[in-house]
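Problem 3 from the worked examples.
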Amino acid sequence: MTLPCLATYGSLMPGKGTARALEELGGTWSRGIVHGHLSGHGRTLSVTLDVSGPPVPVYLFSSADLPRAWAALDAMEGPDFIRRDVQVETEAGPISAFIYVAAG
C-alpha cells in the first residue's frame, strides 16, 4: 500500500514556516521533482505544472494521516491555492502525490 503524499516546494518544505503542520502528523520526507515553472517568492511562491517545463525540486511528505489533514491544509493555503494531483519523479520511480498550485 502506498501512503498518501504531498509534494512541497515553498513554505511547507522542511524547516520552512508552515512545515510544522505536516511534521505534527508524523511521516517521512524524500526528494523528487515535478516539471513546471516557479513564480513569486516567499508566501506567494507558486508552481505552474508543465510536463515540458524544467525540473522543479520538491520535498515529498508521506503520511497515513494526510487524508485527515487535507481540509486544514487547504484552509491554511487559502483561496489562492488549490490542491492538484501530480506525478513526482523520485529515485524509486514515479509517485502520485498532491501539490498546491496557484488557483485560477
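Problem 4, a separate protein:
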Amino acid sequence: MTTRATREQRRKTPWSDQLARSHPIFWPVRAFAEPFVGEAEFPSVAKIDAWLAPYARMRFREQVNRPRRARHKTASQPYDESIVVAGEVPTREGSWHDFMNALVWAAFPTAKRALHARQHAFVKRERMGGEPGRRLPAHDALAVLDEGGVIVVSQRPLSDEGAIDAAIANSSARAVVFGHAIFEAIAIGGPWPLVRAVPLALPHDSNDSRLVQGADQALAVLLASERSPTRPQDLPRISLNRVLCTRVGIDLHSAEPRGRAS
C-alpha cells in the first residue's frame, strides 16, 4: 500500500467506539479506551487530553498540520523535544494513529517517556554533530519498537525467535502489543508496520493490569540501560497473525502482514 493509499485509508475509516472493546488484541489498552465508548464521533484532542493525560502523565496538545512544502521551512519544536522538554505529545485531530498512540501512552507511561527521552538524546547528538536529520541504527530500532513493538513477557529469558514463538504457543509467555501502529492497522485494515518482539523476563502475574504495569516498568529500565536495542535486528521477529491473532480465533489476513505504516 502506497503512502497516498495509506492516507486515504486512514481518512475513510470511520470512528468506532467499540473497536477496543470487541477486538481481543486491545486488552492492554482496553481500560483506557472505555471512557470513549458512546462517543458518536472521533474524540477531540481536548477530550483525549482530559481523559488520558492523568494516566499518561503527559499532556496531549493539538498538532496543526502544515503544508508539506512548508514543513522544512517552519521552525517548530521537534516531536521528541516537545515530549521530553514540554511534557506534551503533539496529537492530530481525527487521527487513528495518534489516538492509538495516546492509548499506549496511558497504558505504558514510563516506557513511552523512556523511549522518547532516548530518541531525543539521539536527535541532540546528531544536531550537535552538525548532521541534523541523520538517523542512527539505534534510532531506527526505537522507531520500530514504538510503532510495531510487541512485549513478550515470560518467567525465563527468551533469546531467539523460535523460543519466543514456542513460549507463546504453549502459554508460558504472553504477548503484549506496545506499538501503536499495530493497533491502528487493526482499526483501518492495514498497512502493517514492521513487527518486532521485546522479550522481558518477569514474574508470572495473572492480573492483566499488574502485568502491563510490570512490563511498562521493565521496558523503561531496558531502554535506559546499555541493553537497549542498537539496531532493528536486535529485536526478534514475531508473527502477529500466527502468534497473536490466530490464538484467539481471529484471522486478520490470509497472509503474513507486510509493509510499513507511515
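Solution to problem 4. DSSP finds twelve helices and five strands in the chain. The two ends are 10 Å apart (CA to CA).
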